[in-house]
Amino acid sequence: MKKVILSITIISILSGFALTSCEDAFGDFLDKQPSNELTEEQVFSNWTNTRYYYHDIYNFLRNGRGRINNSWMDATTDLATTSYSWGGARSSFNIGNYYAGSGAPELISTWEHYYRAIRKCNTLLERIESVPMTDDQTVAQRLAQVRRMKAEARTLRAYFYWELALRYGAVPIITERLDPKDESINDIPRPSSVSANFQFILNELEASRDSLDNEMTMSAENYGRFTQGANLALQSRIKLYLASPRFANLNLVSWEEAAEAAEKFIELFGNGTYYRLHTHADPVTAYMQAITTRKQDLNPEVIFWRNDGQSDWLRSESPVGFGGDGGLSPSQNLVDMYDMANGYSPFLSYDATGAPVYNNGAPSINEASGYSDDDPYTGRDARFYATVLHHGAMWWNRPIDVSEGGADNPRGSSTASPTGYYNRKYMDDSRTHPITGGTMWRNWIFIRYAEILLNYAEAMNEAYGPVDEVFDALQQVRDRAGLTADLRDRSDLNDQESMRNFIRKERTVELAFEDHRAWDVRRWNVAVEALARPIYGMTIQVVGEELHFSRRVAQERVFEPRMYLYPIPEAEIWKTGMENNPGW
């Protein structure tokens, strides 16, 4: 292969130091990195600089909020769109233009970003044992520290390869520090199958797990880093994906093994041993705080995360009537996925994407649920109220008004929500105001305990059908949301297929806007069905004292089978001669 990694390795050894500081990423638990003027020799000439270098690898974990040129990954799915025209999702993913510069860094920069991170991992792994000891270190202390830091570097490297393989399929596997002047890098092959990447990832995670800190014994200074529990949680996710329809033919992981991986985490770390669902007497508050409360502030649900400090970022995501830019706009498609508070689904049938089946632009109503198109926001799942700002929802000191010409849907506005909804999730209006200011934590959770329960339910149903364990795991998630009606009483969940569609719906609403939907519909092999469908919104008209609601198409979407994978960036193709992914 011609110069396959040359464009990656010519980047400065410490270019990662130009990223957000580790203090921003993890609060006071990690020190800031040193000057980016340090050479590699200076970095590994003393233990302090080496620790800074190791800390900085965590900066390559990307915050998902606004990652695509100020728009969210879920704005590329059927769950949402972006209100403003400069949002990268609108001018790249949504129209099928995967070469658009506006899609950076998700489409353009991901390849280089993660290979730079992998090179830092490889460099640390090769050089850390030769760093001189400090005067206050014992041999035993140094060995323990090196063992843990190497395990973290291997776990992080596996995570970075996972992110690459999801997007690009088979990618070159590099496990040594490469010198850009060494022409032998021309011979590094791209595996013939992504199976090689996935097997490498699984092997690395398992090999490094026992050398990581255990949640019950880790020291405060290591808080926020990869632990044994976080490693197992990542394995649960990856094994669930690899058992799914898109990857099942690789024969790497069975549904039974995926279920065992989730069960192992639950037994060792879940059920309150260390992790559990965050709870509160009010279901809306419980779900909201599960997202906005930092791990450092004793949120027991967060397994792996990064926190980028405090900011006034609320302005870019607030309704326009409050002086905000609109931002992420939930779709009617997502709204229609939320059950009623009584535990019943508002519509009669749901498809393999987890969404209601639409006929002539609207789903068929389940009369027994109590849902009414004339009053669509009353009596819904608490997670709906914690995720979506709808017409009439209280925000700061007044209700949201997205009626035609209303305060949050003024005529002629270029940033008003095109769907009639604004984002509520992550938005702590008790901390900040889009006009008067204030700051809040930009919390980004990679893995939380609710996902593990959903992983377990899905894998168990696929392996054994709707057995008791499936109901039990789902019931925990729904009980926290106030949906305490026993799922076993529902006659529509008595076979594997109906339960499968229900789990997919449940997973979607629980994990909405957390960077899951784009990858879930791909692994289920239903991405064309989910991502090429119209994005619906709601038009609200005030007639006298009555409100009239009507669904409408807010945006048409493009998604073709080749878009299951991203194209390899053109710059890499030009420099290396690498063959691009099918269809690109």
From TrEMBL:
The keyword Membrane applies. PROSITE patterns: PROKAR_LIPOPROTEIN (PS51257). Residues 1-18 form the signal peptide. Its main location: membrane. Pfam families: SusD-like_3, SusD_RagB. One of its GO terms (cellular component) is cell outer membrane. InterPro entries: SusD-like_N, SusD_RagB_dom, TPR-like_helical_dom_sf. It comes from the Bacteria. Keywords: Cell outer membrane, Membrane, Signal. Residues 318-584 form the RagB/SusD domain. The keyword Transmembrane helix does not apply. Residues 28-240 form the SusD-like N-terminal domain. It is found in: Cell outer membrane. Belongs to the SusD family. This is Putative outer membrane starch-binding protein. The lineage of its organism: Bacteria, Pseudomonadati, Bacteroidota, Bacteroidia, Marinilabiliales.
